[in-house]
Amino acid sequence: MPSLWRIVCTALFASLAAAPLLGQSLTPSAQPAPLPPPVAQPRSYSVHRASNPVEIDGKINEAEWKDSVWTDDFVDIEGSRKPTPRFRTRARMLWDDRYLYIAAELEEPDVKASITRHDAVIFRDNDFEVFLKPVAEQEGYFEFEMNALNTGWDLYLNKPYRFGGHADNSFELEGLKTAVAIHGSLNHPDDTDKGWTVEIAIPWTAFLSRQPVPPPHVGTDWRINFSRVEWKTGQPKEDNWVWSPQGVVNMHVPERWGYLHFEN
Questions:
Q1: What's the pTM?
Q2: Are 189 and 202 in contact (CB under 8 A)?
Q3: CA distance 235 to 123
Q4: What is residue 239's DSSP assignment?
Q5: pLDDT tens profile 229-248
Q6: Which residues, other chains included, contact 52 with Cβ-Cβ below 8 Å and sequence gap of 6+?
Q7: Residue 71 and residue 90 in contact, taking contact as beta carbons nearer than 8 Å
Q8: CA count, 13 A, side-chain hemisphere, 16
């Protein structure tokens, strides 16, 4: 069965009646269970300014990406206590006066996707996910998921689920740009693919309908993490591979995300 936080998230959108229950604050008698201890220090990434705006076509071959470096390869969400992921995943980032640029490379011998409806539960497909907490003083944070068909799902969480938070599926990252490039074929299991790559451009203004997020400057720090959901045939539970390990099968622990440092 899928992990607990994914069951909660799916149930939220399966029934309107469930939404008020999931959004209620926890009473003192229903405090969340303590988390297991962290498995590592949060990772960090120094994001540099792009020399020019990045063309969002999914290919990651623009000259501007030479100003960035790849992250460490993704690991299991629980860290080194679990096996190394079967397929390599890594990301890189840039920024300029208008956008945060994110690129990711997902090794995948059988690229597949089926979901075409915006704001559907994308993690039912193999997917790539971004989690952003721009303002440390705010409880809320943002999530974006996409599959190999370039179908997206953007969410605002007012606080983590374990503290009675709920997901706002009406939130849209206004001005968001995304693209996917397939290195092989899509939905053809009889051949062997290399994988798929994504490019994302998130405008600094995209958050303002939910939070007053000022554009970053040199020296600004955000919290960020990336997740990849991978389903294996015959395995009922999905794999969760992340950049900065959470130590628990739950991405909604922003205090365990990595750090994004904005630099020139």
A1: 0.89
A2: no
A3: 15
A4: E
A5: 999 999 999 999 999 999 99
A6: 63, 64
A7: yes
A8: 1
